[in-house]
Automatic annotation (TrEMBL):
Organism from which the protein derives: Streptosporangium subroseum
Domain of life: Bacteria
GO terms of biological process kind: response to antibiotic
GO molecular function: ABC-type transporter activity
Similarity-based family: Belongs to the ABC-2 integral membrane protein family.
PROSITE patterns: ABC_TM2
Listed Pfam families: ABC2_membrane
Record domain ABC transmembrane type-2: where: 49-283
GO cellular component, one term: ATP-binding cassette (ABC) transporter complex
Bilayer topology: Multi-pass membrane protein
Protein name (database record): Transport permease protein
Listed transmembrane segments: 49-72, 84-105, 126-155, 167-187, 194-213, 252-273
Residue ranges that the Swiss-Prot or TrEMBL entry lists as coiled coil: none
Subcellular location per the Swiss-Prot or TrEMBL entry: Cell membrane; Membrane
Length: 285
């Protein structure tokens, strides 16, 4: 009578992945990644509450800051506060989804779902890439909702038809980079309770930026940190491209915000994308 040895995470590493040319293996990776993407999207359809709350929460922040505090906040160069706030909140929305990514990755690992993926002959990159694609689709919807909210509140872009898509591209580039940070943290976290602790850090990062106020109103050292925040560079670049009021300054980072809105995300991707793939391969090993 034969017996079957249960599959363990360690034995998963011995499964044979598809062989062939690099192009063929890349095609397998994309196909596997799309399968993971569809699995994540199906979960959202079955449990839409979390996704909808994630879309509505930034709208509530806009209404709170714009309606309650907007009249007391001076806008650099004049103009309405909503015009200043909306590009910053677009960037802030790209940061808010970080917690959702971390929690989803950590939950899959804690429930053994990730181990089951590792027991299959599929690319390690496909699993994390599929998660990333699903969250990017979610972020696109969230950004569209925020832009619609801004238009309803009187926000307009004045930078021309070519500049506006460039601003949206920079915002989504930031989101793509932050997704890999969230995936990596989710993979190395010991459990959902660790992710909850990390979530607390999202708010200081968001507020220590130019999203809500001009860093020139902060103490000198604090304002310098805020200017170098990747969230600030993307928010500032978006304001410039949308033609909205923003903050200037003589510092190098203030004069090169659009450049750094590309450099910061690319740097984060270069660091955390390979770390995420490596973390997945080593998970449970």
């Amino acid at each position: 009578m034969s017996t079957t040895t249960p599959m363990t995470p360690m034995s998963a590493a011995h499964h044979t992945l598809p062989t062939g040319s690099p192009l063929s293996r890349f095609g397998w990776t994309l196909a596997d990644a799309w399968t993971i993407t569809l699995r994540d999207l199906n979960h959202w359809v079955l449990r839409p509450g979390t996704v909808i709350v994630g879309w509505v929460f930034p709208v509530m922040i806009v209404l709170m800051f714009g309606g309650l505090f907007g009249g007391a906040i001076g806008v650099p160069g004049g103009g309405g506060y909503f015009e200043f706030l909306m590009p910053g909140m677009f960037a802030m929305t790209m940061l808010f989804g970080l917690e959702t990514t971390m929690m989803a990755v950590t939950t899959d690992a804690a429930r053994g779902v990730t181990d089951r993926f590792r027991s299959m002959p599929m690319s390690a990159s496909a699993v994390v890439l599929g998660r990333c694609v699903a969250d990017m689709l979610n972020s696109v919807v969230g950004l569209v909702i925020m832009i619609g909210t801004g238009l309803l509140l009187g926000w307009r872009w004045e930078g021309g038809s070519a500049a506006a898509p460039a601003a949206v591209g920079l915002l989504l580039l930031l989101r793509f980079a932050l997704l890999w940070v969230g995936i990596f943290v989710g993979l190395i976290a010991g459990g959902p309770e660790v992710v909850t602790s990390v979530q607390i850090l999202v708010w200081p990062v968001g507020f220590l930026s130019s999203v809500f106020v001009d860093p020139a109103t902060m103490p000198g050292w604090l304002g310098a940190i805020a200017q170098w925040n990747p969230l600030s560079t993307t928010a500032t670049a978006a304001r410039q491209l949308f033609g909205n009021p923003g903050w200037g300054g003589e510092s190098w980072i203030a004069q090169n915000a659009t450049l750094m809105a590309v450099v910061w995300p690319l740097l984060l991707i270069a660091i955390f994308l390979p770390l995420s793939a490596r973390g997945f391969r080593r998970l449970g090993g």
